[in-house]
Give the backbone structure.
Amino acid sequence: MAPYGGFANRGYEVPQSKYNSALLKIGRLNESWRMCRVYWRQGDYISLNEELKLIWLELYTDAKPDQKKRIKKFKKVYVKVIKNEKNPRIRADKLFRLLELKWSYLFDIEKEQGLGKSYVDPEEDDW
C-alpha cells in the first residue's frame, strides 16, 4: 500500500494501482491545451479561463502548497479585474495579461510534474 497523496492528503493508505493513469492525464491535458489555443485565437477569455481551470484540476493533486496559493491569487485578481475595471479595452488587456501569466504558470507546473515536454538525456539509462 502506498500513502494517499490525493485531494485530502491526510496520510490514508490506499492500494497501489497496477495501471498508471498518467497517459490518460496527458491526453486530457493535451486536449485542454488545444482548446486553450482555440479560445486564445478567438479572444474568448471567459472560455480560456474555464479551460485553464480544467488544466489546474488535472494538476492539482500533485501540486505543491505554494503553487496552490498562487493559483488562488490568480483567481482573486481575475475577479477583481472583472468587477472593478469599467473600461472594456483596459479590462480586456488586463485579463489577457493575467491569463497569459496563468497559462505559462500552469505549463511550468505540468512540466515540473513530468507531464510536459521532456528531453532525452543520453546519460540516463531509463529506456
User: Anything to note?
Assistant: The chain has four helices and two strands.
